[in-house]
# Entry
Amino acid sequence: MTGLRERQKAGRRRDILAAASQLFRKDGFADTSVEAIAALAEVGTGTVYNYFSSKGDLLMALVALDGEQVRAKGKRYIASVSGDAASALYGLLAIYVDHSLVHLTKELWRNAMATAVTQADSPFGTGYFENDRLLAEQVGELVTALQAKGKMRADIDPAITGSALFTVVNGLFMQFVARDAMPKTALHAKLRDQVTLLCSGLASDAPSQRKRA
# Structure
């Protein structure tokens, strides 16, 4: 019975999140009420509050869901990665970009970013930046995998490199969500150019600073 109850709770949580995502996308975050989310999910308003303390909590849950799903895709990608360092790293970062609008719109990302920055020490802020940290960590895991394949210099720190590369995609993503007219193709082009430039000094055939010292 415990297992059944847990599955039912997980199912209600998924239904509420799906309803929130649908209404946030259609009507916008500010104009969506918890009552409307409850009605679409076919639960009582009180039930929504049993799972989520506020609309902001729902938004953070969607950000977390995006992170969980994209990291799962990234894990599968890293397990079978091939090609040169620039192509491999661009491929992973492109997965992050392409998944970003599955659950959230640009307007929702702007709202989430603003809340995280202005309330950095709140549960929302800490959750948002933890999601970023985990993605940066995964980029570092890809760097480690590429080093093992001899595709990247062995003398670079994977964690630092992963963080630097994630900072690149994160900065470009902020530009992307800030401009409703900016197409994803433009984001991809900028991302590919910058990753290629950075990897010109990180590939295994690039000169090592340690060797020159």
Remarks:
- The radius of gyration is 20 Å.
- DSSP finds ten helices and no strands in the chain.
- Residues 13 and 195 are 38 Å apart (CA to CA).
